[in-house]
Amino acid sequence: MERGSFLTFEGLDGSGKTTQLRLLASLLRKAGRRVREMRQPGGTALGDQLRSLLLAESSQAPVTPRAELALLFADRAQAIAEVVDPALRAGETVLCDRWTDSTEAYQGGGRELGASMVHSLEGLICGGLRPDLTLLLLPPLQASLARARHRNARTLSQTGEEESRFEAQNDAFFERVYAAYQAIAAREPVRVVVIDGEASIEAIHRRIVEVVLHRL
Fold first, then answer.
1. Fewest beta carbons within 10 Å, which of 108, 131, 177, 184?
2. For residues 168 and 153, is the Cβ–Cβ distance under 8 A?
């Protein structure tokens, strides 16, 4: 059986990546493709537990940057074994909300651990698995942050779920994250396609469909 395709969506929270992933998944399913949606951190029983530790602002004990990095790759190792590899072997299209680029941007850039540490762990944990295509949504920084913080406040009030630990960081942190994403895109222009600007959801979806259909 032909191997499936592995596509990732990247960007700051509030960039619209989750919405765009769902729109693309719906379109591909209508076209007859088998699609697996997942997110990082999370997507497995272990991953969902790690997500709570990593993203909850009210976590009882602070997570150090290196511990954070290690937990993210533990989550990734489980996701590869339990979800990604089996789906790709079965010929499915895997759409993932965040992958190692997020780790390089947030922990390598934002936490200032550096990209080389992330790349070393990626080599050890991911076994050569890399996305076939990454769609990087980069609207203006402040617009993304405002949307993410508003969404997290709404989610907390409606469900009691809190995932605002990263959005609580200062603007300098996110400026480093944003710059790291730009550096990744410049370094890997074939794999990473930047979708920038403040276009409508529909316009961004059309652009993503053009890119994906060309690649697939």
1. 131
2. no
Tell me how far apart the alpha carbons of residues 163 and 23 are, in angstroms, rounded to a whole number.
Answer: 23
3-state secondary structure of 209: helix
Q: Whole-model pTM above 0.85?
A: yes
Decide: 97 and 39 in contact? Cβ < 8 Å: yes
Say yes or no to pLDDT of 39 above 80: yes
174: phi then psi, degrees, rounded to nearest 5:
-70, -30
35-39: strand order across its sheet: 35-39, 93-97, 6-10, 133-138, 192-196
How confident is the model over 140-151, as pLDDT tens digits? 888 777 776 666
Residue 43 in 3-state DSSP? coil
The one-letter code for the residue type at 33 is R
Distance CA 190, CA 186 (A): 9
In this predicted model, what pLDDT tens digit does every residue of 49-77 receive, in sequence order?
999 888 875 545 678 999 999 999 999 99
